[in-house]
Amino acid sequence: MATPHINANKGDFAKTVLMPGDPLRAKFIAEKFLTDVKLVTDVRNMFGYTGYYNGRKISVMGSGMGQPSIGIYSYELFTAYDVENIIRIGSAGSYQEHVDIRDIVLVQGASTESDFAHQYGLPGTYAPLASFELLDKAYNIAKMNGQHVHVGNSLSSDVFYNFQKDSWKKWAELGVLCVEMEAAALYMNAAALGKQALAILTISDSLVTGKSTTAEERETTFTQMMEIALEFAE
């Protein structure tokens, strides 16, 4: 049965969904890595696909940009389509000199300046965390493949163009590795609904060194994080 933002049928999605922000990156992953691929949703051109990777049924779908967007799609996948695991695969900006462009970050905790958690009426500040089961699998697969990954805290920000130009340095001083715009909301939805989530990020640019990658590179060449996610997705 379709939801307001997804027009797939019940059973069209696998238990695990890989979720890049860009729907064109979802298309790239489906066409490059999956077999017997089927487009299962295309509302607002937010493409979702289901296919097979090494005989395992896997889905991939775009989330859009920002916590409100991934909050909508992850909620509908978790509650209406029996999805158990969502693995965000996306890009991030580095806050640390040792976290270079094209490095991979496994997001253990997702700090945020968003008010997304306000809906839960909590008497304090909630700390959104990854599923340890998924994090452990991703870390060990990367290690087995000889891939160096960073594990730690990221910032899920609602602001891309921040008028306080140096505000990122305060997060960096507390060891936050990088910034992106979605993980915290995904982790909160998963926690509230008894599901599992993990964000695997590739560094696209550095606020420390000024180095960056192109939009085309971000769409088509950040394959290591995709391969890590695919190896343990089931």
From TrEMBL:
Gene3D superfamilies from the UniProt entry: Nucleoside phosphorylase domain
NCBIfam families: deoD, PRK05819.1
Active site annotation, chain numbering: 205 (proton donor)
Binding positions for phosphate per the UniProt entry: 21, 25, 44, 88-91
Species assigned in the record: Culicoidibacter larvae
GO BP terms, alphabetized: purine nucleoside metabolic process; uridine catabolic process
Record site feature (Important for catalytic activity), residues: 218
PROSITE patterns, A to Z: PNP_UDP_1
Chain ranges of the Nucleoside phosphorylase domain: 16-227
One of the record's GO molecular function terms: uridine phosphorylase activity
UniProt name for this protein: Purine nucleoside phosphorylase DeoD-type
Enzyme class, broadest EC rank: transferase
Subunit structure as annotated in this protein's UniProt entry: Homohexamer; trimer of homodimers.
Family the entry assigns: Belongs to the PNP/UDP phosphorylase family.
Keyword vocabulary terms for this entry: Glycosyltransferase, Transferase
EC number(s) from the headed UniProt entry: 2.4.2.1
